[in-house]
Specification:
This protein is α/β, with parallel strands linked by helices. It has two domains: about 220 residues, Alpha-Beta Complex (inorganic pyrophosphatase (n-terminal core)), CATH 3.90.1640.10; about 140 residues, Diaminopimelate Epimerase, Chain A, domain 1. It is about 40% helix and about 15% strand. A seven-stranded mixed β-sheet has the order 11-12-10-9-8-7-13, sandwiched between helices. The protein is globular and about 60 Å long. The structure holds manganese (II) ion (MN).
Length: about 375
């Protein structure tokens, strides 16, 4: 479990590694071309870690090679914080759908791996390098691979690259990386290792706190509140698991926000939130610490009709609907819920109890 790694020394953590994590930056730079066009990409619907690590990599390549790499992302920027981050950091993001006919001298994928089903990168596009912290899907035979599943954030790897190359951060980049590690590890509370703590504190003195605040407290649209209302009203408790279905959602990462929120309920150790976004069913899973891995559950419940994955405490997935009827969508959602409850050992509590009714009963008992 990554949280156990956090208690070990850095020496323990790296003991089984034949390489120096900071040296990897040089290997990456040696792998990339010295001229031409370089594309950086990540998973669809990018989160702060994806955005910050793309920005850091773009900076590294510009400083060391004099090339301005392009950043292309699929999906949309859902969370208000991610939109604020993009605007305030002046990120120049290219929609991935526009890349079909373009060829690149190198393509680098960060915070994602080829074949994990969460990137709309055209499949024929050859990938030169992968830098990620998700569990290794399958061995990759590529010119450069740096996957560190024990790391809480890819941004931590980029901080080590900067250290290895003795580069300084702009305030904006330091703020982006700091925010990425902060949000990905829930303020150093979830799924991290010593390297994340080290990176977080090494950035501390370079953060623009006013900028960070303006991202963290970005104004949120009105429909966000309605989504919480639906998410809470429809939430059902199955033992210590909570499940809710949101119906149509305005942005795909809405499911993750509600899943985070519901996990805070006093009875809840596991949450599953499902929504429908365009022709996809998207879901998010959150686990409190324990011996079950959310990434494995997220992958297993979509088996046969979609793709899922993630980390031990946060994960998700999506199913592209080929039959767009409501009944088909409902059927798949029910299968996801049934498989989830089986996976977390809570199927015996079916059909579940309304989260709100549960709270009311508790309170009236006390009166
Ligand atoms: Mn990440």
């Amino acid at each position: 479990m990554p949280q156990k790694a956090a208690k070990n020394s850095i020496r323990d953590l790296l003991a089984d590694r034949p390489w120096d994590p900071e040296e990897k930056a040089q290997r990456l730079l040696d792998t990339l071309p010295d001229s031409g066009e370089i594309l950086l990409t990540s998973h669809d619907n990018p989160d702060p870690d994806a955005l910050a690590s793309c920005l850091a990599l773009q900076t590294l390549i510009r400083k060391k090679k004099g090339i301005t790499a392009r950043i292309a992302i699929g999906g949309i920027l859902g969370r208000a914080e991610n939109r604020a981050m993009t605007l305030k950091l002046n990120l120049d993001l290219l929609p991935i759908d526009l890349l079909e006919d373009k060829s690149w001298d190198a393509v680098v994928m960060v915070d994602a791996q080829p074949g994990s089903g969460n990137s709309n990168l055209p499949p024929q596009m050859p990938i030169t390098a992968v830098i990620d912290h998700h569990p290794i899907r399958r061995p990759l035979d590529l010119p450069f691979v740096d996957i560190r599943p024990e790391y809480g954030a890819v941004s931590t790897i980029l901080v080590e690259y900067f250290k290895g190359q003795k580069l300084r951060y702009s305030k904006k980049l330091a703020t982006a990386l700091f925010y990425a590690i902060k949000s990905e590890t829930a303020d150093l509370g979830r799924g991290l290792c010593n390297a994340d703590q080290r990176a977080y504190f090494s950035l501390f003195n370079s953060v623009d706190w006013e900028l960070l605040h303006s991202i963290l407290k970005a104004k949120i649209p009105g429909d966000y509140f309605k989504l919480f209302l639906v998410g809470i009203e429809k939430a059902a408790l199955f033992g210590n698991a909570v499940v809710t279905t949101l119906g149509e959602i305005p942005v795909p990462d809405a499911a993750a926000e509600i899943a985070d929120f519901l996990l805070r309920h006093e009875y809840v150790q596991r949450s599953l939130v499902i929504g429908r976004y365009e022709d996809q069913i998207v879901y998010s899973i959150r686990f409190a610490r324990g011996n079950l891995d959310a990434g494995i559950v997220a992958s297993a419940i979509a088996n046969g009709f979609g793709a899922g994955g993630g980390h031990d405490q946060m994960a998700g997935g999506r199913i592209i609907l080929t039959h767009k009827t409501k009944s088909k969508s409902d059927e798949i959602q029910q299968t996801l819920i049934d498989r989830f409850l089986d996976s977390v050992g809570m199927a015996k509590f079916k059909p579940g109890r309304s989260l709100l009714a549960e709270q009311f009963a508790e309170r009236s008992n006390k009166l």
